[in-house]
């Protein structure tokens, strides 16, 4: 695993959580150039990347993450940010959905949140911070076709956006997996989503959610 963040205290904090949990951190770097060099050399399983890094502190980390996904498709990417910007997650999701995550820094130093996001991203899931999802929910009811969803279907879609499996959604909502499957089918129908070799409906549903 490689950790990239120009803020030394944040970087060291993340590394301490990872190594304290028995994970192997092969490198920690302060900028996007060093990140790409490290990933090219070590080809880690996961790169933990701050979105805003030197020299301009805008989207250097995001651009590096996109380059990593292009050059090393087997490397999962977990983006970190101080900002609630769903457009950042959208750029990663549109090109290569799966094995990506986006967490708000305020929650990163909670070991359970960080480790859970890393596990799920490494397993191929799309993981969006619950804080981002909560903010997006405020917009959902204003926008068609999302306005057609019921309150429960909005809940299910929000949990899909967090990258949860059907089993995990069922546990969160205290319902059966069969009930969750029925809600997801209804969401797909209402959003006019169909499976094809090029698109996966779960990912398309999440993208619809994030575009709202």
Main sheet: strands, sense, barrel: 6 strands, parallel
Structural domain tally: 2
Through-space gap between termini: 33 Å
Helix content: 55-70%
Total number of helical segments? 11
- Helix and strand element order: EHEHEHEHEHHEHHHHH
What is the highest CATH level, the class of the largest domain? Answer: Alpha Beta
What is the overall shape? elongated
Mean pLDDT: 83
Class from secondary-structure proportions: alpha/beta
Q: For this structure, what is the CATH homologous superfamily of the largest domain?
A: Response regulator
Parts with pLDDT < 50 across at least 5 consecutive residues: none
CATH topology of the largest domain: Rossmann fold
Radius of gyration: 17 Å
Brief description of this entry?
With 212 residues, the protein is an alpha/beta fold.
Question: How is this structure best described in words?
Answer:
- With 212 residues, the protein is of the alpha/beta class.
- The chain folds into 2 domains: 127 residues, Rossmann fold, CATH 3.40.50; 79 residues, Orthogonal Bundle (Arc Repressor Mutant, subunit A).
- Helix content is 55%, strand content 12%.
- It has a 6-stranded parallel sheet, sandwiched between helices.
- Helix 2 packs parallel to helix 3 and helix 8 packs across helix 11.
- The radius of gyration is 17 Å and the shape is elongated.
- The model has no long low-confidence stretch (mean pLDDT 83).
């Amino acid at each position: 695993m490689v950790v990239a963040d120009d803020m030394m205290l944040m970087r060291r904090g993340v590394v301490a959580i990872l190594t304290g949990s028995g994970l192997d951190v092969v490198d920690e770097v302060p900028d996007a150039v060093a990140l790409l060099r490290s990933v090219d050399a070590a080809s880690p399983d996961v790169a933990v990347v701050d979105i805003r890094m030197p020299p301009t502190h805008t989207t250097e980390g995001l651009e590096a993450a996109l380059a990593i996904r292009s050059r090393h498709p087997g490397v999962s990417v977990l983006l970190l940010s101080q900002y609630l910007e769903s457009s950042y997650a959208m750029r990663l999701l549109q090109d290569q959905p799966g094995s990506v995550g986006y967490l708000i820094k305020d929650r990163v130093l909670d070991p359970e949140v960080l480790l859970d996001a890393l596990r799920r991203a490494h397993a191929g899931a799309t993981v969006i911070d619950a804080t981002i999802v909560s903010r997006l929910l405020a917009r959902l009811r204003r926008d068609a076709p999302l306005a057609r969803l019921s309150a429960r279907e909005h809940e299910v879609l929000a949990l899909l956006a967090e990258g949860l499996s059907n089993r995990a959604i069922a546990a969160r909502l205290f319902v059966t997996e069969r009930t969750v499957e029925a809600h997801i089918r209804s969401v797909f129908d209402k959003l006019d989503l169909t499976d094809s070799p090029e698109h996966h409906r779960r990912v398309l549903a999440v993208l619809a959610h994030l575009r709202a």
